[in-house]
Amino acid sequence: MLNKEEILATLEMIQHENLDVRAVTLGINLLDCACDDLARFQQNLRTRIGHLAGSLVNVCNQVGDKYGVPVVNKRISVSPIAVAGANFYPEQMVEIACTLDSIAREVGIDFIGGFSALVQKGMAKGDRSLIRAIPEALSATERVCASVNAASTRAGINMDAVLLLGRIIKRAAHLTADRDGIACAKLCIFANIPQDIPFMAGAYLGVGEPDAVINVGVSGPGVVKKALDRALRMDPRIDLGRLSEIIKRTAYKVTRVGELIGREVAERLNIAFGVVDLSLAPTPNVGDSVGEIFQSLGLRAIGVPGSTAALAMLNDAVKKGGAFASSNVGGLSGAFIPVSEDLNIGQAAADGFLCLDKLEALTSVCSVGLDMVAIPGDVSEETLSAIIADELAIGVINKKTTAARLIPVPGKAAGDKAFFGGLLGESTILAVNNTCGENCFVRHGGLIPAPVQSLTN
Q: With a threshold of 0.90, does the pTM exceed it?
């Protein structure tokens, strides 16, 4: 139960500090929908998802109104389509994506995730079909999101998949060139992907999850910034240990709100409650920025010296607060640094404080990785694959989740602007070191073996 002080503090967060439940995501197991007939499979999807998700939006709105906490996004994640639809060819996978998009519109949700494949150790028929279908699937749909797990600490890095994905991303960008390659914004390439992410574009329902489950994503960068600002006004000489404690306590309160909303939504839908993902996920709105937290901590902008240490402190404090507040914390739970989706981070990139190399360094201590990064459209497939491999290696060696959501913007160069609209925002295109000739390293393919850290049995 929340005590009086927590209730008052939470009300202040809702009214003045941009606290919301960023996403309620209904996970749906589709594995028993599998069959070898495409029309029947599509009908199975409609029946299963429609039955479970038909009232999701209304219930979220009702619970949000009851507590005065807005539920911003209502979403669905499904079992990896590469598994559930393993019998189908790439052209049929595109039709499946269009069916998922149609279902998402019918039930009124924002995004549906799970057009996904898990290929960290190798690719099966369904995996190859799905990956090859990604460009056409994402360019032909509005609400479908895709993810591919191409590496893990236990398996290593599947460089055959990474090389293929470089080509896939370039193709997806080409097919949506008139919209600055926006199809790529709906594709994440992961190492160590969690099975219960409520945030897009990486959300999918893991094979070990229940038939249906409610996972909640709670964000609050504005809440954390205001808490730090209050403490610094009272004592400008406050040390970093005490500031970390303030972040931790704030994350605790935010997690409690998320679990309250999530459990009631799950109860009303008669579906199991899964996890709260406490991730500081920003939007392109003023006052809802992770980048502003860096400035509150005394840095001129994210990307200057000290940024990696500050992000490490922030990420750790958020996780500690969430873990103390609930035994059901999962997903990614930490700090996101999506360049185009955060107004302040995007400005730091435009001002030259944040470059691709520094961003990669920051991903060693954040919750995701190279997220919503616009790069020049002429970056080669091999260089794109090499950037992804570098990012996955950080996750594999450090036993953490990392990901790459890269957008090579057709016809644009470093310093130009890319415009994605809505929650995806806009960004200055970052320069890439693409002048060193052919990148033969990634062409070797094969499997980069699992590191010694994998030997934990």
A: yes
Distance CA 250, CA 41 (A): 45
Distance CA 146, CA 165 (A): 12
> Residue 146, exposed/middle/buried by CB under 10 A (0-12, 13-18, 19+)?
buried
Distance CA 215, CA 75 (A): 10
Q: Which of 333, 395, 374, 326 is nearest to 182 (CA)?
A: 374
Non-local (6+) Cβ contacts of 253 within 8 A are 6, 9, 10, 13, 325
**Tokens read off for 298:** 């005394």
Secondary structure (DSSP) of 199-212: STTT----TTS-SE
The full DSSP string for 274-327 is: EEEEE-B---SSTT--SHHHHHHTT-SSBTBTTHHHHHHHHHHHHHHHHHHH-S
Instruction: Say which DSSP state 329 is in.
Output: B
Tens of pLDDT, residue by residue over 45-73, are 999 999 999 999 999 999 988 888 888 88
Q: Does residue 433 sit in helix, strand or coil?
A: coil
Q: What is the mean pLDDT of residues 418-426?
A: 85
Residue spans of the domains in the chain: they are 1-436
**Alpha-carbon radius of gyration of the chain:** 21
Task: Report d(CA 143, CA 234) in Å as an integer.
Answer: 46
Is pLDDT above 80 for 231? yes
Omega prior to 251 cis, within 30 of 0: no
Tell whether the torsion through CA atoms of 226, 230, 235 and 241 is positive or negative.
negative
Write phi, then psi, for 248 (nearest 5 degrees).
-60, -45
3-state secondary structure of 267: helix
Q: Selecting from 3.40.50.1100, 3.40.50.300, 3.20.70.20, 3.10.20.310, what CATH number does the domain 1-436 have?
A: 3.20.70.20
How many other C-beta atoms are found inside a 10 Å radius of the C-beta of residue 40?
11
pLDDT in tens, 200-223: 888 999 988 889 999 998 877 888
Statement: residue 12 has pLDDT above 70: no
